[in-house]
Amino acid sequence: MNNMKRSIRRIFWLLVLCFFLLLGYMGKLVLMDRVAISTNSYNTRLRYVDNTIRRGDIIDIDGEVLATSVLQNDGTYVRKYLRSRMAAHITGYSSVGKTGVEAAENFEMMKLHNEFLQRVMSIATGKELVGNSVVVTVDMDIQTVAGNLLGNAKGAVVVVEPSTGRILALQAYPDFDPNTVSANWENLKDAENSPLVNRATQGLYPPGSTFKLVSSLAVMENIQDWQSRTYECTGRASFENKVIHCYNKKAHGTVDLKQALTVSCNGYFAQMATEFGASKLGEVMKRVGIETPLGFELAYSKNKIGLNPNATQSELVETAIGQGQTAVTPLYMAMLAAAIANEGIMMQPYIVDHIQYTNGKVGKYTVPKKLTKICTTAEATALKDMMVSVVENGTGSAASIKGVTVAGKTGTAENATGNDHSWFVGFAPAEDPKVAVAVLIENSNAYGSATPIAGKVIQEALKQMENKE
Amino acid sequence: MLDLLIMLSRFLFVFYIGFFLWQGIVYIAYEQGGFLGSPYHAVSIQRRLIILMHITAFLILAYNRELGIYNWQTVLFGAVGCVFLLAAIHFLDRFYYEGCPLIWTGMLFLMDTSLIMLQRLAPVLAYKQLMWMIIGLVGMLLLPAFFRLIPRFEVFEWAFIIICFGLLFCTKIFGVERNGSTNWLRVGGITFQPSELIKFLFVFYLASVFRKRVEWKEFIVTGVLSAGVVLLLVLQKDLGSALIFFMTYMVMLYIATANEFLFFLGMICASGAATFAYKIFSHVRVRVAAWQNPWVDIDRGGYQIVNSLFAITTWGFLGSGLTKGMPKSIPVVESDFIFAAICEEFGALFGAGVICIFIMLLYRGVRIALDCKRRYYSILALGVITMLCFQAFIIIGGVIKLIPLTGVTLPFVSYGGTSVLVSLMMMGLLQWVCVYCEQHDADEETSPVLETEGGQGYE
């Protein structure tokens, strides 16, 4: 009988444990997974419109209103996007479903701060109920310059503050007018140039020569005598069954790492990669966070590493010069440049700065968070030095700014869709980096067309940041 | 104005369930020798909380927003529901003198939640549910009288299992398919789920066999017959019920033999069987795939579970407020997924409270099994409460994506006539055991505590 009592107690605790698992899992769902799950575009609750509440505004860091709700005669609210296309990929739209900040902060903008008081006041005085406003980190002055420079070229510009991960501008073309999304929905959703896709965060492109920043790190770590090692470039090099050319088949002569990066010598990096091998390169690629979830508020694509440890030699050399199967977003490349600027520490990117309540108070500031450490401070400094040389003496000279030391790396990515994509990633001032950028122009006609745009964007961003200090 | 009240009502509902549970703790503390308050007050406060919650909810539900008037039909139904609750409180005390009051209040709280939620989702179902609750309650009140007429019903052990198999074979042959499972039977104009009915018989059968010393013969016979029941249920694609029957068998076998080895052996066999089922049945694979990653197939396989997760997470701890959520986006929300609807409109805290009520029921049921001095009743009580609580666990676990979804009802809460009826009868049985033991153990203090049929004691 006592045995039985013991067994009964054990069964009791087993079942209680089951119930506690339920409680724990529910807590996890509501506390930790809530935002990730509920902002999914399939959630019909996002389409829920409460016409008794005026949705909060979206405001840029300087206080410029990007999106607001206006009361119509029939008592419903209509959403107005005051900067229309210029901030379309940031605000997103809120009509046929939701995207961008409209989706990410949907519930915040529908929420009433101090709900009880607002509702009582509303009954007493007839004042309208207003949701919380979202202040984004974006500076519309930089955003506008970036947008105008991009013009009608397909591509993306990302500007980020290296020390915090704050997104200062996020521009992508083709874009759309969020005011008329629902009217033009049929055209927009299947349009050939996919204007609804935010190329800055969702476009996946081969990194081209900008990937040599990662290859350089692998060289510094795996080639003992990298500082004295040189390579004789003839403009052409063959590995197994793969022939690598330098751009325009130009012979660069004797190059070391710094010189190879400055002139973007494919032969050097291909040769080094074959020396340390695919698994070492793969290790570095993982560490620099290509596959790390970015934790960004807006929808973004996951980068792809197209290299496995048993890769053939031709796959390896292609990857080392940024071709092959590896694909990255412009957002990630901006973060990579920012991490080099920030002594090897990659910060988590964020676009929502804080929430502004109806009573004028503010709160819920996003706290900058370290995402990962991509390399040592010494390596970052060495890389920075080489990137300065790229802009001063090499392929990136079009990005140089008078009176400011710019560090950067250009890229030309061959791809299956036509002309090469043009890349530039970099940061400035090199001595004390304030901004990092990534510019991508799809199927660019002119060689290196991303580089001058990057220069001008950096110049504007530095000017704006100086004004604020 | 209404919005303001609904917003405030969210706090009120969380308060109701929180205070309800606290009163349960007060009662238990007194029983354990501590003192947090009077246990008699605790129970009467719990009863008042149930009535208050009922009134609050129906005041919100009955208001017609478009017309700005009260819907008298809903008010009337609310009043009938209120009378039902009061009558249940009154009669349960009379018919089960000295039954555990916490089980009654916990059960009524869940039943009230069910009425409110069904009124919100589909009023027609709420009316039917109330009807079944009344039938179940009447049956439950007659239960003690029935057992008084047939005092030694444990001798019918063979009859129980034969009826079990009879019902299962009938379903296999004449069954009607609903929601992907062929586990419905239609007699006259009424469709019902035999798998619910046989729960009752199955527990009776096992308790009757296990009341004697468990030898190899009993072990093999019960093992084979239980495996047969489980297999038939799997063939009817009723995986949830199969799982419940298996667990009930294992638990009852374990407490009858106190043999851990057998328990773990059973679990290993079950894992093997589950893997086998995964390989050969496509509907099992579909369920598991929908559990592992519902996000890749939102439009089809993952639709239900993903919508359930949206419902639970979107509004946070306090929920959207009654009538303000969108629970109807979840398919079969009124039966299997009612827990998601509760979390959506009453909030995740209230949902956690519902889980705690099941823990409270479990504790009280186990208490009865422990206090009972007769082996047969002990096993019976534990079988009943394990079955009920495990059922609650697998459906809530399925709805929140902790375990793969198996379609069973949440006892007392989900819509389903047979389910309500059987759950009520099982609670009646549990309480009857409690009352019976209280009355008879005292007389038999000196006599042997074990059934001695066949001249053999267990220890």
Write structural notes for this entry:
The complex is a heterodimer of chains A (469) and B (459). The model of chain A has no long low-confidence stretch (mean pLDDT 91). The termini of chain A are far apart. Chain A has helices at residues 2-31, 34-38, 88-91, 100-104, 106-110, 115-125, 140-150, 185-190, 199-202, 212-222, 257-263, 266-276, 278-287, 313-320, 330-341, 377-393, 450-468; strands at 53-54, 58-59, 65-71, 77-81, 94-95, 97-98, 129-130, 133-136, 155-160, 167-173, 231-233, 236-239, 242-245, 253-255, 345-347, 352-356, 362-363, 370-373, 407-415, 418-428, 435-441. Chain A has a domain at 202-350 and 370-468: Beta-lactamase (3-Layer(aba) Sandwich). In chain A, strand 3 (65-71) and strand 4 (77-81) form a beta hairpin. Chain A contains 17 helices and 21 strands. Chain A is an alpha+beta fold and 469 residues long. A six-stranded mixed beta sheet of chain A has the order 4-3-2-8-16-17, with no helix packed on it. In chain A, helix 7 packs antiparallel against helix 17, helix 10 (212-222) packs across helix 12 (266-276) and helix 11 (257-263) packs across helix 16. Chain A is globular. Chain B has two domains: 1-150 and 294-441, no CATH class; 152-280. Chain B has 16 helices and five strands. In chain B, strand 3 and strand 4 form a beta hairpin. The longest helix of chain B has 30 residues, at 2-31. In chain B, helix 3 (72-95) packs parallel to helix 5, helix 6 runs antiparallel to helix 7 and helix 14 runs parallel beside helix 16 (417-443). A three-stranded antiparallel beta sheet of chain B has the order 3-4-5. In chain B, strands 1-2 form a two-stranded antiparallel sheet. Chain B is mainly α. Helices cover 72% and strands 4% of the residues of chain B. Chain B is globular and about 70 Å long. Classes of the chains: A alpha+beta (469), B mainly alpha (459). The interface between A and B is large, with 39 and 53 residues.
